[in-house]
Amino acid sequence: MSAVCAASAVMVTRAVAAKTTKSVSLSKASPTRRGRASVATRAVELATGETLEVKPVPMRVGHGFDLHRMETLAEMPDLELWLGGIKLEHDRGCVAHSDGDVLLHCVFDAITGALGLPDIGQCFPDNDPKWKGCTSDVFIKEAVRLMRDSGYEMGNIDCTIIAQKPKISPHKKAIKENLARLLECDEGVVNVKAKTHEKVDSLGENRSIACHTVCMLVKV
To answer: Model pTM?
Structure first.
């Protein structure tokens, strides 16, 4: 064997040995990583009585979305329009099993989504007469309870209301203040925005109203 070939063989042998040593080191370290991952979960009970487990990681992010059809008060005079627990005067109202507050409904879903728990429809079924006409602050109180019982507090929450009418800007401050109160958090971590839908589809034609919400929960 030539000197060049012999030197190459030595280099390959050393490289394989180094790779094997690294693999063994990683293998030995993996139980530690697995140990960190298997942190004890916390059991939380839903309004339905079902108990689920929530894994306590440092931060959790959730998204919620809701949309409700709107009809004119001339056709359905008992309808109302609620956003963030604030009643808005409008010639249309939301058709819903409860009060139809799209903002609070999607806030609920954002919080339970962050916790890995079921959405509002599963927690408060619309075929249950108990929730017929219920005000949505009841749902938010439940979301806050689930959040606290799981060991979290609100890091921040960002809501975007989509409605062609009525104009939301004059009501933003009241909605933001009330949302912070319901969530038992500082107003500085709550944000409420509003967009029209440029007269496109049911949202733009004032036949529906929608909301998106993103929240971050922080482990206490």
So the answer is: 0.79
pLDDT digits (tens, 9 = 90+) for 142-157: 999 999 999 999 999 9
If asked whether residues 7 and 112 sit together in one domain, one would say no
pLDDT in tens, 79-90: 999 999 999 999
69 with 165, same domain: the answer is: yes
3-state helix/strand/coil string of the chain: CCHHHHHHHHHHHHHHHHHHHHHHHHHHHHHHHHHHHCCCCEEEECCCCCEEEECCCCEEEEEEEEEEEEEECCCCCCCCEEECCEEECCCEEECCCCCCCHHHHHHHHHHHHHHCCCCHHHHCCCCCHHHCCCCCHHHHHHHHHHHHHCCEEEEEEEEEEECCCCCCHHHHHHHHHHHHHHHCCCHHHEEEEEECCCCCHHHHCCCEEEEEEEEEEEEC
Q: How many domains does the chain have?
A: 2
